[in-house]
Amino acid sequence: MAKKKYSKKELKEFRKRRDLSYSNLFYSDQRLDLLVIAISGGGLYVALETMKFFKEHDLEIDTIWLLKLAGIAFVVCIISNFVSQILSKLSNRYDYLMCDYAEDDYCKSQLYDSKSEKFDKLVTVTNWISYTLLFLGLICLMAFLVIRL
Question: Residue 17 contacts by C-beta under 8 Å, 6 or more apart in sequence?
């Protein structure tokens, strides 16, 4: 069986794609995830400080579960976001390797491309988990504040 070769045009595109993938390794650390982490961290702080205030003043609250749920959602959001960053880095690394091997080893190139696509799908899933938990935390926090204040 003959080994498939990429055309010169495809190889040129792979080189450009490889360079872009390399720069994306750094960009992935600076995107929307910073906003998710900042809002989740702030929401977690508000939830914990509010629970602390009510506990210090021996106030019984029937809707404390909203604050607890918000806090849990923010913590799991931060964890999910962290996992997403790791998966994103792996996806970009395999994409970079795919482009690097495109010229010399078609099979290896396809293997890395497949791995990159799998990690990319996992990044999408973990990002949506983070976004969903962020909104859940914000909704629970705001519901608690609207009901209690």
Answer: 95, 99
Report the predicted TM-score, pTM, of the whole model to 2 decimal places: 0.78
109 with 102: CB under 8 angstroms?
A: yes
Rounded Cα gap, residues 141 and 133, in angstroms: 12
Cα dist from 16 to 20, 95, 116, 141, 144, whole Å = 6, 12, 17, 46, 51
Local structure of residue 30 (DSSP, 8 states): S
pLDDT tens-digit map of 22-64: 788 667 656 788 899 999 999 999 999 999 999 999 988 899 9
Four-residue CA torsion sign, 92, 95, 101, 102: negative
CA neighbor of 100 nearest in space, from 117, 118, 112, 116: 112
Tens of pLDDT, residue by residue over 61-108, are 899 999 999 999 999 999 999 999 999 999 999 999 998 888 889 999
